[in-house]
Each structure stands twice: as structure tokens, then as C-alpha cells.
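Look over this today:
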Amino acid sequence: MRILVFFDLPITTLENRKAYSKFRKFLIQNGFMMLQESVYCKLALNAVAAGAVISNVKLNIPKEGLVELLTVTERQFSRMEILIGEAHNEVLNSDERLVFL
């Protein structure tokens, strides 16, 4: 099973930033891997292990913000499609704006 943690935490004050940093470090120290910014994932052997991980995350959530947990099977997780868009390079490769001093 996979446990996905999605979070949207405020970082407007120093206290909020510290809570964000503490929660993110907690996830990393407990074996979560970052899939995207504010989306972390951890592998659990079975539903009992997943329940223990979820309980531990619930004990460490910050006071403010939104934290969501989703448990999916390994088969469901393996069906995830990864879509990568085309890179856009907006750098001009010309000497159009070249200034000689």
C-alpha cells in the first residue's frame, strides 16, 4: 500500500514557516519521499502498517493549514500516469540587444 500526504500550509508568519519546516522534516525522517512540492508518499506493507503511519502523521500535523491523507494499493499507484509538458526556453539567442561599451 502507498500512503500519500498532500498538504497546503501557510508560511506567512515566522511561526507558520517553522511549523511547515518541522512537518516537512518529520515526513522525510519517517521515510516519506517527495513526489511533487507538498505531495509526499510512503510505502506500507499492509493495512495495519498503513494505519500506524497515518496515526503518526495525525499526531504531527501543524495547527493551521490543510493536510490530506490518501491510501492506495500498489496496483492503483502503479497505474499513475506521469505527464511531462514541453519545456519552453524563452532566452533570446541573438545579439539584438548587445551593447558595446
About this structure: The chain has a mean pLDDT of 90. The first strand starts at residue 2 and ends at 8. The chain has three helices and four strands. Helices lie at 14-29, 47-59, 74-78.
